[in-house]
Automatic annotation (TrEMBL):
InterPro entries: PAS-like_dom_sf (IPR035965), Sig_transdc_resp-reg_C-effctor (IPR016032), Tscrpt_reg_LuxR_C (IPR000792), WH-like_DNA-bd_sf (IPR036388)
Region of interest (Disordered), residue spans: 186-222
Pfam families: GerE (PF00196)
Segments forming domain HTH luxR-type: 121-178
Name of the protein in question: HTH luxR-type domain-containing protein
Organism encoding this protein: Streptomyces alfalfae
Amino acid sequence: MPKENKDSAAPVYAAQACPLSAVIVAAETGFAAQFGVSPGEIHGCLPSDLLHVGTPESLRQRFTGLCEGHTLWFTEKVIGQHCRGTTFTARLTAGTATAPTGLTGLMLLLSPTTRETPPARTVLTALEARILDGVAAGASTELLAERLCLSRRGVDYHIRQMLRRFDAPNRRALAAQVGALGLLGPSHATAPARRANDSSNWSAETTGMRETPAGWATAAQS
């Protein structure tokens, strides 16, 4: 059952993260349901893989502060995305959960505030478009994670979400299908013709890139 927020009628859903790495190790069904997935599908992800605030580094830094003991808790307004492509805003409160023996974990409390109406057509966020551009160029999961400030598990999570949304059997088919639908720009549409191991162009184009809240904006509109 969701925990009720004393300040409003909005429900609050909980997840637990590792105190050393901030990796999510357990989550309530309601927490995972905000993203349209099961709890097991977000295990191993970082909170910053699922939620955005400012730049990716800013949310990671907040959790680093918790893990290193510089702060005991924080609250941020964050943006998340459901597997259907809709985004939502929520209030995230994260803090240390302690026991007499010491630090035992990090507790995440997510209180959704608004959710967008489903779009009339399937769309991509700018982050998803960049992931698919890298996939089409043959970029490795490690390179995608580095360039987009995600964990490897986070990259896989976003790709699984798109595979589900577009009903594609694999990454290559996903990139081809999205390109054929015209949801990516001209450069993306020709990307599958590159050599499978040639990620140099994609790497150079995205060097120094850091995703911002605008990354949740759709890459294609009706």
